[in-house]
Amino acid sequence: SANNLKIVVDASNGMVPIVLNELFKKINHNVIPVNFEIDGTFPNHSPDISKEENLQDLKKKIPIFTRKYLK
Predict the structure, then answer these.
(1) Can you tell me the distance from the alpha carbon of 63 to that of 49, in angstroms, rounded to the nearest whole number?
(2) Distance between CA atoms of 68 and 71, rounded to whole angstroms?
(3) How far is 29 from 6, CA to CA, in rounded Å?
């Protein structure tokens, strides 16, 4: 059901947590934040989501990707 929805968000250590943290408090879903510590040096990966290598932290939090694609 929609109430059991889990949302995984990788903020790439950018500024988006400033807005999303407030939004997440208002929705009734399980939110899994990844790289939500704001750091303009982007220590975990580049914020460019068009590059596959920048999606690895996010994929590791999604079980189907972990089982099927990340070996």
Answers:
(1) 20
(2) 8
(3) 6
Instruction: Give 14: exposed, middle or buried? Use CB within 10 Å, 0-12, 13-18, 19+.
Output: middle
* pLDDT tens string 15-63: 999 999 999 988 878 889 999 999 999 999 999 999 999 999 998 888 7
Taking the CB of residue 35, how many other CB atoms lie within 10 A of it?
Answer: 21
What is the model's pTM?
0.78
What's the Cα-to-Cα distance from 7 to each of 30, 33, 40, 43, rounded to whole Å? 6, 8, 24, 23
Among 33, 37, 48, residue whose Cα is nearest residue 15: 37
